[in-house]
Amino acid sequence: MEVPVTRFSYASDSADEVWDLVSRLYMRVRFPAPGTGLRYAVDSAATGSLGVDLARCSATSGVAAEGSDQLILLSWLQGRVSMDFGRYGGAVAAEGDSSLYVPGAPGLFDMDDYVGLAVRLSPDEVGRAVEDLTGLAPGALRFTSVRPVSTAHGRLWGVTARMLWEELTGPGREALTPLVHQELVNAAAAAVVSAFPNTAMTRGYVRGPGYVGPATLRRALAYVDAHASLPITVADMADAAGVSPATLRAAFRRHLGTTPSAHLRRVRLDAAHRDLVAADPAGADTVAAVATRWGFRSPARFEDTYRAQFGCPPGATLRR
Q: What region holds the HTH araC/xylS-type domain (predicted)?
């Protein structure tokens, strides 16, 4: 079943209406001293666990925000914003900067004619994706600052935010396949934990898991082969094998020299190759359709990966 993408546009110059929308989208807010000429507009695209909004606001002098239950990241495209999140720090952001709203933390903002690209993520979804990437338990993931690790990391998040916006708002994006949706969430999670200080960066030494025999590994491999067309995770693979995700990752490194996630991508790449070989060049299947079916959301990246593995572009395989 495809994942629907819900879109809407909104504009208002009423402080009460803006308060209501912002409170529903992000967090409860108050305008202690609204400036004159308030105008707020937003274009939004969202799935159940990922949202991206292009917001424009003018002449707002101050905002007090309560804590949000979402992970919200902003890339500033125009204007200037000063923010203070107490023990999580503060920042003055301008064009090209990025910042993070720490879940649950109240904040004070002073904004001046800004345009921003906001990404909304479920902390639970990000936690599960980070567990696949690092082995850190989802409940142990916490972000510790509103500022990115460096200016370069902040700009890298800005590139990711624009990619997410284009993926959710491009032509024909009324719905996403489950695999493509999972890859978008995973890409966002990986970029967030790379760009903003968090406990995954400071994780201490973890004692290695015990030995895993061939039978356990075979169960994991068989599960991947049978479910590669579904949005499965490393945790799902570990459950099927009867071990913890950390133990499974160690087993893959020890016996196969790879990771569970990399193996899953390779299985899907092989499946895409088989579909291209079997496809009728004059039929409905295209390279883009096959790539999307197997969770490769970027045609250019799919072509590069495919060429590196099979020695030719995917289009050449389809035309044989």
A: 218-320
Query: How much is the CA Rg of the chain, to the nearest whole Å?
Result: 22
The values of phi and psi at residue 39, to 5°, are -145, 125
- The DSSP letter of residue 229 is T
Q: What is the pLDDT of residue 131?
A: 77
The pairing of strands 29-30 and 6-12 is unpaired
Q: So where are the chain's domains?
A: 3-192, 214-319
The tokens 């910042």 sit on which residue? 99
Do the Cβ atoms of 309 and 271 come closer than 8 Å? no
Over the chain (320 residues), what is each successive 10-residue block's mean pLDDT?
92 86 83 67 93 87 80 91 84 88 85 90 85 75 87 89 92 88 88 86 47 72 89 90 86 85 92 90 85 88 90 88
CATH topology of domain 214-319: Arc Repressor Mutant, subunit A (1.10.10)
**DSSP structure string for 192-214:** HHHHS-BTTTT----PPP----H
The one-letter code for the residue type at 15 is A
Q: Is 170 exposed, middle or buried (0-12, 13-18, 19+ CB in 10 A)?
A: exposed
pLDDT of residue 33: 55
The fold adopted by the segment(s) 3-192 is Jelly Rolls (2.60.120)
Residue 281 CB contacts under 8 Å (≥ 6 apart), including other chains: 318, 319, 320
Q: In the prediction, which pLDDT does 51 show?
A: 95
Q: Report whether 318 contacts 285 (CB < 8 A).
A: yes
